[in-house]
Amino acid sequence: MMRRDALVALALLPLLATPLLAQSSQFGVRGLGLPGRAASARTIATGGAMGLFDGESSQNPAALATLSMTTAVFTMANAYRTSINPSGTANGQDNRFPQVLIGGPVPRSRFVIAASYSMFADRDFQLVSTGFASPRGVPIGVTDTLTSRGGIVDMRLATAYALSPRFIVGGGVHFLTGSNRMSTRRVWADDDYAALEERAELSYHTIGFSGGVLLRPTPRIDLAATIRRDGTLQIERDSTPSSKVAMPMTISGAARLHLSRSLDLAGSVTLRNWSRADEGLVGAGAVGSRDTKEYSAGIELFSDARRTANKPLRIGVRYADLPFLLDATGQPNELGISIGSGVRFARDLGGLDLAVERIKRKQGSNYSETAWQVTLGVSVRPGS
């Protein structure tokens, strides 16, 4: 098998000539992978609408000011999906740890600091295709397997500062890093031919910066906004420079209404100019990328207005474009509907949050996917 950049190999292999095996979404096969969400279970349960106000999510550095004591949050997600494409139907399952965050107030100051890890793009998958090759002019059946393990992670260091109780600013630095262990293997139907296998490792790195604000113009209204700019992603194959991909700028805004002591309503919008990455991806052999929009709306209904994090009802809905095209027929998108709740115990020093989300993804009429995703968040607060 010819040596080639793994992105090129990914683009040239038949997409799902047989169904995707029990790994990640088929919508993570192209480009840089399936985008991550850097969200806590609470935020996911509200469709993402509360993300810019949630200090336990890695989306708005200013929201860290809501952490009143040292807090550690561990998020786990299990997804069960059915993928449909021109080759048929396949069922899959994966388990992920999409976010870890540790942060808290700086003693005798207005600062809150935090470090977090989140999945920026997931490229964990396995593709199997069958066909024929003619090494000596005679067609022989072959089975080709492309396996990818890894992805790109976002390591963030961030801080928030309360200029006043109603106006908070924050900033963060993001280290995008990660790797993919890629392997391509061809097995011949004729035992006279030995199997062919090639391995390579892709590594990624760049740096980015983000800023955010929280504003409370009235006691019933909260506003939030963020902007993030990442540098050009450097891609190496086996420690040798391979390609570069321009990363998008991200702009987000959100509003939250305190309709009563027991009910909050929120909505958010996020825009990313992923078309900046198109030239680099096409140059590496991928189909390309497009700008994306994401809209979220959600509510929190509190069973105890004095302990809003204990046993609330959370409901949300989310629509998002996906940046990386499976083919040239259109842009993929996803729709999610979610519900969840949470409990606090040990005098609120520990907590569990749960979100259940029904997700539908599609591109045109050829590719679709439905999934149930269960997200569990575990939080620990050692003390003030």
Summary tags:
384 residues, mainly beta, Porin, 5% helix, elongated, disordered N terminus
How are the elements arranged and paired?
Blueprint: H1 6-12, E1 34-35, H2 41-45, E2 70-85, E3 88-105, E4 111-122, E5 125-133, E6 140-164, E7 167-188, E8 196-218, E9 221-230, E10 233-237, E11 240-245, E12 249-260, E13 263-272, H3 278-283, E14 292-301, E15 313-321, E16 333-345, E17 350-363, E18 367-383
Antiparallel strand pairs: 1-4, 2-3, 2-18, 3-4, 4-6, 5-6, 6-7, 7-8, 8-9, 8-10, 9-12, 10-11, 12-13, 13-14, 14-15, 15-16, 16-17, 17-18
Structure description:
The protein contains three helices and 18 strands. It starts with 5 loop residues before the first helix and ends with a strand. The radius of gyration is 22 Å and the shape is elongated. It has a 14-stranded antiparallel β-barrel with strand order 2-3-4-6-7-8-9-12-13-14-15-16-17-18. With 384 residues, it is mainly beta. The protein has a single domain (6-383), classed as Beta Barrel (Porin).
Helix segment tally: 3
Uncertain runs are 1-22
**Spatial separation of the terminal alpha carbons:** 60 Å
Major sheet attributes: 14 strands, antiparallel, barrel
Widest sheet: strand order? Answer: 2-3-4-6-7-8-9-12-13-14-15-16-17-18
Query: What would the CATH topology be?
Result: Porin
Q: Output the radius of gyration.
A: 22 Å
Provide the helix percentage: under 10%
Characterize this entry briefly:
With 384 residues, this protein is mostly beta strands. It has helices at residues 6-12, 41-45, 278-283, and strands at residues 34-35, 70-85, 88-105, 111-122, 125-133, 140-164, 167-188, 196-218, 221-230, 233-237, 240-245, 249-260, 263-272, 292-301, 313-321, 333-345, 350-363, 367-383.
